[in-house]
Amino acid sequence: MDDLIPKDAAKPLKWVGTRPIRPDGVPKVTGKAQYGADFNMPGMLVGAILRSPHAHAKIRSIDTSKAVALPGVKAVVTSADFPEQKFEYVGPERVAVNFWHVTRNIMAREKVLYEGHALAAVAAINKTVAEEALALIAVDYEVLPHAIDVEDAMRPDAPLLFPDLITRGIDPPPSKPSNISKRIEFKIGDLEAGFAAADEIVEMEFKTAAVHQAYIEPHGCVARFDADGQGELWSSSQGHFVVRALTAQLLGMRLGDLRVYPAEIGGGFGGKTVVYLEPVATLLARKTGHPVKIVMSREDVFKATGPTSGSAMTVKIGIKRDGKIVAADGVFKFQAGAFPGSPVMNATMCAFAPYDIPNARSVGYDVVCNRPKSAAYRAPGSPISAFGVESVLDVLAKKIGMDPLELRLKNAAKVGTQMVYGPKLSHGGYVETVQALLRHPAYKTPLKKNQGRGVASGYWFNGGGESSATVHVNEDGTVVVATGSPDIGGARASQALMAAETLGIDYAQVRPIVADTASVGYTHVTGGSRVTFATGIAVVDATKKVIKELCRRAAMIWDVDVEGVTWEDGHAKPASSNVGDFKPLSLKEIAAKRALTGGPIGASAAVNPGAVAPGFATQFCDVEVDPETGKVTVLRFVAAQDVGRAIHPSYVEGQIQGGVVQGIGWALNEEYIYNAKGRLDNAGFLDYRVPVASDLPMIEAILVEVPNPSHPYGAKGVGEVNIVPPMAAIANAIENAVGRRMTELPMSPPRVLAAIDDGDKS
Amino acid sequence: MAEVPARVVLSGGLSRRYTGGVQEFAIEAKNLRGVIKAMDRLYPGLGEHLEEETTVAIDGEIHEVGYYQPVRPGSEIYFIPKLEGG
């Protein structure tokens, strides 16, 4: 059956690589698509959540009696209504979940650990009553000193968030508690000998600010609960199976008693792979017997949902005069937020991954502090460490008088290069991204005064993992493709293209949907750039099973052996003239005979594909710095990325453009600004400045296609690596524009102006 | 003639936690199930940790841990912390 799939140039592809309109486009542009907040049910109540005004405080008591007594209030819950969870880290180290922590993040117990931390929730007949009820809940706090920044939180005298937190990953374990949750180290070669052999060594310190994923759609959900113990949830997320698992665990339910429906999603970028509202809404629905809707405000989103970590880091790299990197060392300290679990492990693993470095070490620290618990954000961790590494490489390139792209090319990781985390690289693609920029006509064009050009590269693992798909042939020969992957970046269009290509039918004949947790098999989150790869394999596998069945039905119709039937261009055909003289049968004609040949035609596939090919990106940008104000304007941005094969090139370009734009925001403006009381001063889009269209040039995306042999159409994950290089590329460009090396993000006008002024004074 | 064993390597963190710092092993097995069983015989309980907490790279190809992954004679197998994206 595998030979049904055209490989590379063996047979031209009809649909893969084309740009049809997306099947979910019309309802979205006409405002009819249903997002998390758009579901309504008869008898539905409104839920609201009381949040902490303090960064750190003991909860002496919570008195809800006045709120409960308010007419129109149907239920009030606090942490006492949630079952306690065992203190244990469950699952893989990088993403180990400790439900003792998770339940305390959903609803504070002994202490509040950040401004915005949930303390109690009400369900009432309308929003006005719900908010009035929140104001009647009396909380007696003992305010404690707080720690916001990572290096402050690491100090021996820092206020402790947890009195018994002992750092993991240090042998022997420390005798005293601290805010350092974990230390990680990866090492290859002989670091000391490597630096001793270097002709030039540069060591620099960097800081990055915590930034939010800044999805436009706030979190929202509706829950209902029946007297028989069956619950249902409608929620906007990146993975409704994970929403089900987390909610069920936090409420002590069986998975089979909770059905979760995927809403359309207005952005997630990693931040919607966890739960905040869903367990609370479900608990309120269970307590009241009514459906309950909860929707966050923008302020809630900023104060209570995961940004990615801010960081402090030191990067040291040594090179020979010919440009060969001989040693690299990085120490990365990440804010985890109020509970352990920053993406620092990814940062340590990705930091030097684009390069062949014989002697390297990367060390990471996961540090709790009085901020919201960090959550995944596009290539979590990798952009942060890349800011330091790619900046230091730029300084080194200047020191030896080498073009920065040529330096990267000389040291490029290739198949067989050992990664700092152990294994050897098994897929290429990096070299091609650098070469694509070296060939770009704008790379050598001269720039004007106060303008500069910067380059940087990035690495991301990409993901595989569990996915399910079901393919049904309708009675009229149209096809439904159902998967369990929420569509955050054009996944439905891509799945339909792969099914159409495999079947040999028109794209318009295929209707792709995202099915709920009871209607399709388990599917892991839409994250890690895994969906086109892993769910795509499930779709192609299910489609191949359908083709096999269609051939069997055609054989029955022709009364020949099934071996005598082949599938080509959407039709069953005799495999040879010896089989007989039969007119090819279309999908529609076979579907019309389905009852006579055995009933409805469909198949499912469930997969856990490995052999994941990583993503590489290299980018250059031109900027202009206003020396009077420090404002940086991005004039040009060119982003090359190895995408394997672009299934739907427009959506791949969209991913690259989106990642770059988020990187530009991270580089130039975005940051969480806390005041002396540990309260967030910019919890809104007016003061938390994301780039808008008028801030940006057209982002030029270059699709480098080094096909992935592990995928039937050669696809690699494309969603994340594009956000890794921009911060360093822009810092490098600023240095070339005005001669100032920026080492702290964001490189906002005041900070750039200060650097210019400081340089002028010195 | 005996087959060339696979070279099995644990990351530093895993070896610190579970094998007293021993990072490298020579294991004869036809698939990952065999590798995990052999590791579990050496360090009782380790198998479950490898199944639950790691991603595996077999000759550089990164996979989620699955019993069915084939192991060739002389393969290089790294158990590394499980990865997750955004």
Word description of this protein:
The complex is a heterodimer of chains A (762) and B (86). Chain A contains 20 helices and 28 strands. In chain A, the strands form seven sheets. Chain A has a seven-stranded mixed sheet, sandwiched between helices. In chain A, strand 11, helix 7 and strand 12 (258-262) form a beta-alpha-beta unit. In chain A, 57% of the residues are buried. Chain B has 86 residues and is an alpha+beta fold. The termini of chain B are far apart. The longest helix of chain B has 11 residues, at 32-42. Chain B has a domain at 22-67. In chain B, helix 2 (32-42) packs across helix 3. The A-B interface holds A 91-96, 169, 171, 184-187, 213, 269-271, 273, 345-346, 349, 376-380, 415-416, 421-426, 460-466, 527-530, 608, 610-612, 614, 710, 717, 719-720 and B 9, 11-14, 16, 52-57, 59-64, 66, 69, 76, 78, 80-86.
Q: Which architecture of the domain at 432-458 and 613-762 in chain A would the CATH scheme give at its second level? A: 2-Layer Sandwich
Low-confidence stretches of chain A: 1-9
Unreliable stretches of chain B (pLDDT < 50, length at least 5) are none
Q: What is the CATH first-level class name of the domain at 432-458 and 613-762 in chain A?
A: Alpha Beta
Give the percentage of residues in beta strands of chain B: 25-35%
Q: Please, what is the average pLDDT of chain B?
A: 88
Major sheet characteristics of chain A: 7 strands, mixed
Mean pLDDT of chain A: 96
Terminal Cα separation of chain A, in Å?
Answer: 71 Å
* Gap from first CA to last CA of chain B: 48 Å
Number of strands of chain A: 28
Key terms:
heterodimer, A: 762 residues, alpha+beta, Aldehyde Oxidoreductase, domain 4, seven-stranded mixed β-sheet, five-stranded mixed β-sheet, 28 strands, 24% strand, disordered N terminus, B: 86 residues
